[in-house]
Structure formats: structure tokens, C-alpha cells
């Protein structure tokens, strides 16, 4: 074992490795671009709005009032999606919110303020419309490169005339589950336990921005089987997450398998509890292998610590920010290791927090970050590492 890397440094190192290895950006449909970052500034293809649009339901009027209703000329009303005729002085036409304002309009009377009698309209008229280019002019930069692509960003892009966005695609990811002792159905029995990581981890990776394929395994506890499974997964994945085998026990073959396929360590062990025996390696052709411990909670901590930052970098995003939580009780430290302690939203430490347990995790807000050589005191506000997809 090498000297464990400090937890905060490990997060930054994993992110930097992903950012340096991100593939060239391409034009992606909105559904594929969401969750990535803009690889170029977003600019308006046309004025936004492209033409004056009514901000209210009312009556468009021109000249001095009262104004004559002209239903025949305008088909009864100006509706969204129509190009209306010009309005002449003394005329009035009903207009819907979002409709193009007729040329010649000098004001709009809100419906609720309108008096209508004998074909004449009266009431207070005002400029109740959005001017062309009021939100943005054609060619204007709307968002800078590097902006995370969220649902509102997609809405803005569509309104500005785009159908695709320049972004980094979701990395393809496969999960490889190691362990003869694992079952894929039924209950634990006869010394064998039900696999929880194969079903769980791909959903976390999807939430973290990956395109996760089906899990492979459980894989037989031999070096040959480990090497074959890694090669199978790497054939169509940018990142492979393995579960188990990160130590150096009699059936822990991951390190030897990495050497066999020519992978080099980016990170080998992290000073964090739970989750200490995690790793990140890179193959000669630039693909990544993240070794997650076999204990479920430790594996989740490895996803939070290494995999989520790596995926953010691969998609051109900044290092994921940590949240915060105010502790409702004292939380012990773990010596020279960072302690990631399961807490709820109120800052209470949860029970069933052993590295092999998932019950506490299922109810958690995330992991309170207790730095090395320190402890968390009741009432202290500390960083919170959240779990993708939780």
C-alpha cells in the first residue's frame, strides 16, 4: 500500500484527471447535453423576442380614443402565431398574451380595465408589450462557456433559436462486480450474500452524469477472470467501476489485474473512513478504472470521493461543490483520516452506519465531512458530501 492521499486532494486529483481527459465537445441534442457544461458561449440566433409581443390579454389601440372595434379586419382577435395587419388610428382589436403586436399600435388596454359599448372601446392604454430584442439582441452572448447545462439553460437555448448545444457527451460507464460469494437474486444464504452494488451503483453513475450500461458479474475470484472482465468492460466504456478486490487479500486480484492490462494508478488509497481502500487508474489508451471497495457504504463513499469528481471533469464541469450541515450532536474524528459520517438533514448522525450497511444511507442527507485530526462538535457547521441520485 502507498501513503493514502488526503481526501480533499483526492477529489481534486480525480476531477483534474477527468478534465484533462475530456473528449472534444460536439453538438448534442438537448436531452444529451443536459448535465454537461457549455463548451462555447451561448448566443442568440435572433432577437429575443423576435418581434413585439403583448404582455397581457387586452385591446391594442392606435390614435385617440374611444376606439372602433374592427373584428372583420382581424378575424375577431389577434392571437399568438399570427402576423396581424397594421392598426390604423382610431381602431381597436382584441389581442392575446404572447401575440405579435400590430404595427401602428400605440397602447394596449388590459381586458379588466376595458369599457366596451356600441362597438367602441375605452380605457387606460399603456405600452403593455415586450419590444423586439428586449431580452437579447441577435448575436448577443447569453451564457458563458463552462455554464452547467440545466433545464432552464435548455429553455433559454430553445427560445434563442438553438436545437443543439456544444457540450461534452456523457461518458460510457460499466460496473464490474467481483466476488464468488455474491448472489444476484433471492436472499443471502449458504455463506453467500446478495449483491447490492451491481443494482445500485449504475443509478448513482447515471445521476452523476454518466451513460451507465448493465453491470458485469459477479466475476469469479481468479486473476484470469478479473482481467477478462476488465477487458470486456473497457471495450465499450470510458470508465469502468469495479466493486471489491481493492485490498491485497488472498482473493483480491484487482491490483494484479491492473498491472496485467497495463493500467497506471492516478490515486491508490485515500485517507478517508469508511472507504479507505479505493483507487483510480488509467489505461494506456486513456480510459479510467475506479476501484470501489466491496463494502456497500465504502463503495458509495468511493463514488462520492473519486467517481463523481472524475465524471464532472470529463463533462467539462467544475469540481462538484460540497454542501453544508449544522451538526445536532458531536461526531467523532478518525485520527489522521477524514471521517465521512452519515447524517440526516437536521444534522443527526444516523444509526446503521457501518461500512457494510445501507440502512442508514437510505435515509441520509449525505456525509458530514470531519477533517483529519479533528472532531465535529454539536452546533458546528461542516461540509456535506451528497450522494448522486440520493
UniProtKB/TrEMBL annotation:
The keyword Nucleus does not apply. CDD domains: MoeA (cd00887). It catalyses: adenylyl-molybdopterin + molybdate = Mo-molybdopterin + AMP + H(+). Pathway: Cofactor biosynthesis; molybdopterin biosynthesis. GO terms for cellular component: cytosol. Its cofactor is Mg(2+). This is Molybdopterin molybdenumtransferase. It comes from Glycomyces algeriensis.
